[in-house]
């Protein structure tokens, strides 16, 4: 009932945002949406594992991602509002921007808690639609190129997921069932045809890598985060990546109940290690701040997948890592707009001495860098450490060694860019034109980074039990 | 009868590999749309009016009429040169598509599965891979869209091979997919046409590291 209400509410608010031209009404609608979203989050948590509307069943993983999304969407709307205010947008482009954001968040939320693979697929399709509206926000040739590539790659990846679902259907046919909800898939997993299951896994995994940001389809996400406005980029780097994670996690959890588990692990490890490698190569030479953040996401998702494939404590660590990454990466993306307002450029060659121009923001960048590279006391340190531990326990010592070397190189590449931004004086800058930026605009970033630290070092029992419950899906 | 239709579809792929004018591609798409309708009509055993209407909408109205018409409108509007401009000679393309078809036949014959109609499987997979090949081997952005549509046709046949058991909702889903993707591909393609006339993929290569 609540899910249906949420869907209808989202639709009404989207149409309202799109049609409305009044600033006050616009923000009231956004506030109403946030209330609705939080209401959904809390309601779903209270009704854990209850089937709603036939196709939705909030399990622990879905709840974790949904709650993380509720937290991130508040600052996302706030920074969206700051972004619009500083860019002199027309009411029309503002309406499209916020309507697309609302649609993206709702579609991700629904996909997290959906209990039917085809329903997940439909919502993934909707995220592509709404994301393309966000990427095209600037309406220039770069945005056009970004959106073209994103739409094209996502369309193909969505087709792959569909083909995967068809193969899953073939595999299920042998069991004599045609209900494709995850519950029914788990119940009939022993009777499913392994050959088609294998093919289904390959296609669905490849399809979801476009959303997760993993090799082979990671390129779409990078261009999207680069060309979209930073608040939207923050959503792509957190909630949309989580959607890819949820998709892969569910199909992988299914496979782990069959003898195909080791084969699937090999596939995932190959994709993961290639992702970390690709991230390393680009991080070492990249000169665009936003793309640096985006490639850092590719690296983290590679690590998450390594944890997932190693099993044991790695599964717990992978879920923890995804949740913490949801808080850390948006912090950096939200900060990006302030950097851009100071330097009017996203190239590392034009920036520098950020501490002098915006102290509060510079500390966010520094802390964000420490968090995103997983150095203590960052929250991601805990989960990365656990992932390394799981690799060690799974006797993947050589792999662990390679990953550690690659990560060191990433820290070097990331660090040299960030320290250039923070400390080296810029070559040419007209200090008169630098706007004064209120330190309060950085508050939400501090809170997000602090939240990641808190959840990693003294996690509430509730949080731990939810992760454990989700990790138990993996056999 | 379905076999004949499917084989005709596979032959249209071979023709596509050597076609050099964009309008020829569109005509092949129209042809494929009608073939798909015929195949669906003959395959589905229990057919009711709603289902029939849906399939008619999906194949004839959408795949065979609306989309090719929209693409030809775009070609005219943007004054796109009417040659596909492949990277490879047509002869090589023909060989590659033939290899794709032969490889899928070999692959299909190695599968031991009673539930599966092999002809469907072979044609579906070879259409899918031919679509991918068309995308990577042609310079023009519009031929990428055409390649994508060929992939969609392949997926459609694949869903027929599995089809009888699939829930209605997934059927609706694929319609949403086609609708949405073609719509946005088309709209953005139109936008690209506003900025660059006769667009070529090389013009969209500013986003890189």
Structure description:
- The complex is a heterodimer of chains A (475) and B (209).
- With 475 residues, chain A is mainly alpha-helical.
- Chain A has a domain at 262-475.
- Helices cover 77% and strands 0% of the residues of chain A.
- Chain A has 19 helices and no strands.
- In chain A, α3 (60-86) packs across α19 (461-471) and α11 runs parallel beside α17.
- The radius of gyration of chain A is 21 Å and the shape is globular.
- Chain A starts with a helix and ends with a helix.
- Chain B is mainly α.
- Chain B has one domain.
- Chain B is built from seven helices and no strands.
- The model of chain B has no long low-confidence stretch (mean pLDDT 82).
- Chain A binds chain B through residues 118-119, 121-122, 125, 128-129, 132, 136, 141-142, 144-149, 151-152, 155-156, 158-159, 162-163, 165-167, 169-170, 173-174, 178, 180, 193, 195-196, 223, 226-227, 282, 285-288, 291, and chain B through 111, 113, 115-116, 128, 141, 144, 148, 151-152, 155, 158-159, 161-162, 165-167, 169-170, 173-174, 176-177, 180-181, 184-185, 188-189, 191-192, 195-196, 204-207, 209.
Write the layout of secondary structure elements.
The complex is a heterodimer of chains A (475) and B (209).
Chain A: H1 2-19, H2 23-46, H3 60-86, H4 91-113, H5 117-135, H6 141-173, H7 182-187, H8 194-212, H9 219-227, H10 230-255, H11 261-285, H12 289-310, H13 313-343, H14 354-357, H15 359-372, H16 379-393, H17 397-422, H18 443-457, H19 461-471
Chain B: H1 2-18, H2 22-43, H3 49-78, H4 90-109, H5 118-137, H6 141-163, H7 168-195
Short synopsis of the structure:
Chain A has 475 residues and is an all-alpha fold. Chain A has 19 helices and no strands.
Q: How would you sum up the global shape of chain A?
A: globular
Structural class of chain B: mainly alpha
Major β-sheet profile of chain B: none
What's the gyration radius of chain A in Å? Answer: 21 Å
Runs of chain A in which pLDDT lies below 50 for 5 or more consecutive residues are none
Strand count, sense and closure of the main sheet of chain A? none
Give the terminus-to-terminus CA distance of chain B. Answer: 53 Å
Shape of chain B: globular
Q: Could you give the order of the helices and strands of chain B?
A: HHHHHHH
Number of strands of chain B: 0
State the helix count of chain A: 19
Mean pLDDT across all amino acids of chain B: 82
């Amino acid at each position: 009932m609540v899910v249906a209400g949420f869907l209808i509410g989202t639709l009404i608010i989207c149409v309202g945002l799109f049609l409305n031209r009044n600033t006050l009404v616009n923000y009231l609608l956004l506030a109403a949406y946030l209330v609705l979203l939080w209401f959904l989050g809390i309601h779903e948590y209270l009704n854990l594992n209850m089937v709603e509307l036939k196709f939705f069943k909030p399990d622990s993983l879905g709840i974790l991602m949904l709650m993380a999304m509720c937290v991130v969407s508040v600052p996302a709307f706030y920074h969206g509002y700051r972004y619009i205010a500083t860019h002199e947008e027309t009411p029309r482009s503002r309406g499209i921007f916020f309507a697309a954001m609302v649609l993206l968040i709702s579609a991700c939320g629904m996909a997290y808690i959906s209990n039917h693979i085809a329903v997940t697929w439909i919502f993934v399709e909707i995220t592509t639609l709404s994301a393309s509206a966000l990427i095209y926000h600037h309406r220039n040739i770069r945005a056009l190129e970004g959106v073209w590539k994103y739409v094209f790659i996502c369309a193909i990846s969505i087709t792959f997921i569909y083909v995967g679902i068809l193969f899953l259907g073939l595999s299920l046919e042998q069991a004599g069932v045609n209900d494709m909800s995850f519950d029914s898939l788990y119940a009939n997993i022993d009777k499913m045809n392994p050959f088609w299951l294998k093919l289904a896994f390959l296609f669905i995994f490849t399809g979801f890598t476009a959303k997760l940001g993993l090799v082979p389809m990671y390129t779409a996400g990078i261009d999207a985060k680069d060309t979209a406005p930073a608040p939207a980029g923050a959503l792509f780097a957190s909630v949309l990546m989580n959607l890819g994670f949820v998709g892969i996690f569910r199909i992988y959890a299914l496979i782990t109940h069959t003898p195909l588990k080791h084969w699937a692990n090999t596939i995932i490890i190959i994709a993961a290690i290639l992702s970390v490698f690709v991230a390393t190569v680009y991080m070492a030479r990249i000169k665009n701040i936003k793309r640096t953040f985006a490639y850092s996401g590719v690296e983290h998702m590679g690590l998450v997948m390594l944890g997932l494939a190693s099993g044991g404590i790695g599964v717990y660590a992978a879920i923890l890592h995804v949740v913490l990454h949801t808080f850390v990466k948006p912090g950096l993306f939200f900060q990006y707009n302030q950097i851009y307002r100071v330097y009017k450029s996203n190239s590392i060659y034009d920036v520098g001495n950020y501490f002098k121009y915006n102290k509060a923001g510079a500390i966010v960048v520094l802390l964000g860098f420490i968090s995103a590279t997983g150095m203590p006391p960052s929250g991601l340190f805990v989960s990365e450490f656990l992932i390394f531990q799981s690799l060690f326990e799974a006797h993947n010592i050589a792999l662990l060694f390679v990953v550690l070397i690659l990560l060191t190189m990433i820290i070097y590449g990331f660090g040299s860019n960030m320290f250039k931004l923070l400390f080296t004086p810029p070559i040419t800058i007209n200090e008169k034109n630098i706007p004064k930026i209120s330190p309060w605009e950085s508050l939400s970033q501090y809170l997000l980074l602090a939240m990641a630290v808190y959840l990693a070092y003294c996690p509430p029992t509730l949080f731990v039990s939810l992760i454990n419950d989700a990790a138990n899906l993996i056999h | 009868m379905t076999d004949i239709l499917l084989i005709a579809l596979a032959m249209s792929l071979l023709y596509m590999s050597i076609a050099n004018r964009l309008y020829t591609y569109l005509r092949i798409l129209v042809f494929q749309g009608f073939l798909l309708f015929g195949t669906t009509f003959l395959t589905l055993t229990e057919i009711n009016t709603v289902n029939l209407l849906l399939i008619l909408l999906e194949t004839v109205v959408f795949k065979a009429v609306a989309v090719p018409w929209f693409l030809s409108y775009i070609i005219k509007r943007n004054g796109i040169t009417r040659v596909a401009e492949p990277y490879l000679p047509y002869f090589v393309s023909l060989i590659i598509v033939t290899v794709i078809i032969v490889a899928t036949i070999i692959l299909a014959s190695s599968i031991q599965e009673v539930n599966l109609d092999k002809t469907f499987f072979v044609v579906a997979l070879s259409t899918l891979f031919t679509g991918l090949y068309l995308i990577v081997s042609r310079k023009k952005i519009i031929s990428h869209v055409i390649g994508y549509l060929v992939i969609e046709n392949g997926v459609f046949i694949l869903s027929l091979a599995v089809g009888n058991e699939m829930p209605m909702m997934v059927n609706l889903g694929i319609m949403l997919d086609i609708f949405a993707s073609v719509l946005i591909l088309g709209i953005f393609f139109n936008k690209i046409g506003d900025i660059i006339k006769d667009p070529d993929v090389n013009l969209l290569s500013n986003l890189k590291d």
